[in-house]
Amino acid sequence: MEENLRYVVGLDVGTENVRAVVATVGRDGSVSIVGYNEGPNSGMRKGVVANLTGPAESIDRMLGEVERMSGFEVNSAYVSINGAHVMSVKAEGMIAVGAEDHEITEDDLARVEGAAVTGRVPANRDILDVLPLSYTLDGQKGIKDPLGMTGARLELEASVISALAPNSVNLRKATEGAKVEAEKLVPSVVAAARAVLSEKQMENGVAVIDLGAATTSIAIFEEGDLQYVGVLPVGSNNITNDLAIVLEIDTEIAEDIKRRFAARNTAEGDDAGEILVRRGREEMAFSRAEISEIIEARLAEIFDGVRKELKFAKYDHKLPEGIVLVGGGARLKGVSEFAKDALEAAIKIGAPSGLGGVAEAIYKPEYSAAVGLVLMAAKDNGQIIRSHHEKKKKKSGGGLLKGFFKKF
Ligand SMILES: Nc1ncnc2c1ncn2[C@@H]1O[C@H](COP(=O)(O)OP(=O)(O)OP(=O)(O)O)[C@@H](O)[C@H]1O
Ligand SMILES: [Mg+2]
Hints:
By secondary structure, the chain is an alpha/beta fold. The chain folds into three domains: 4-84 and 166-198 and 351-406, ATPase, nucleotide binding domain (Nucleotidyltransferase, domain 5), CATH 3.30.420; 87-164, Dna Ligase, domain 1, CATH 3.30.1490.110; 229-349, ATPase, nucleotide binding domain (Nucleotidyltransferase, domain 5, 2-Layer Sandwich). The chain is built from eleven helices and 20 strands. The strands form five sheets. Strands 1, 2, 3, 6, 11, 19 and 20 form a seven-stranded mixed β-sheet that branches. Bound molecules: adenosine-5'-triphosphate and magnesium ion (MG).
């Protein structure tokens, strides 16, 4: 107990799945995973909360096991936000800091941040984060940390990440419905990047692509900083739906076929020309060539969108460390070969690794965002573990949840 002073929670609210990870944080900052779980979500559309009760109930249900496993009550968390409304813009600001021999203070940094953001973000957007890229002090460019330096005129270039205010408000309401306060909202792909990238990759230039159920999001890093975030409203479930429509089968079978299939026909098991699906006594055979065509058509569309984003951000063919794929869609067989051809870059599949505690079960691409959130929370703060007795308080059940929503 002495060693672990704080605990932190990461909560990834995906369109199809909700996932949570709980970790204790040692005095030395070491992170130890003590609980995790995942469950199906409902009431979300393309990464955005479409009704409050669906996600609230899904989160509440999923957290039961996390609390049992970790022994901690989950009442606040770093929460992922997703959807095409999430975006980043570059912003610049300038302030005069006074006399020539003035030393830059925290206060000056906050002021120049304010100057950079003012007028850059429309009123219907919530600023999620302002990430300083570089400062200029009295004309000297490229300063990473001007605190304590001497100068009279301070300029800042920053990435400003924002989300449509109604969407972030509804996400907060949904987690509050599960008795979880969202301490901070982080774009899911940015959180995922934190779990799968090394500092060297972020320094040299790398992109992370989160292939989710209903969204595909892109985060680009260079010089150690986040340079760009973009989200496309198309994801891995679109492949499933295409298969269901074209092959005239229900989505469960389509999902099964998708999971068994390799986009480039490298699958093992099934006969060369066909994939066999048993349903009760019935056996259905589907042509590999046809499935391949359907999957690849949608993948081509998704990666074409990604390529356009990279180009828009001016990073196409400019990523020495290549591209890292995460999210459930990264499990699609053959997806990295496909991405390599489509994006003309080196591709890796990313997953969390190297964590302490009961972590191995979450070393999967789809857990990247939840793990990244927990790592960010661990770095920033955390709830103090006060006493051994306090940690086993049981949360109120679904009854209170219903009462909560009467308020809206
Ligand atoms: N083994 C697998 N093979 C192929 N696809 C898979 C596999 N496992 C999961 N998927 C796909 O991954 C997707 C779910 O990924 P994930 O859980 O990351 O999405 P999400 O976070 O809920 O959605 P989003 O990020 O778009 O809001 C589904 O489309 C699912 O079909
Ligand atoms: Mg997701």
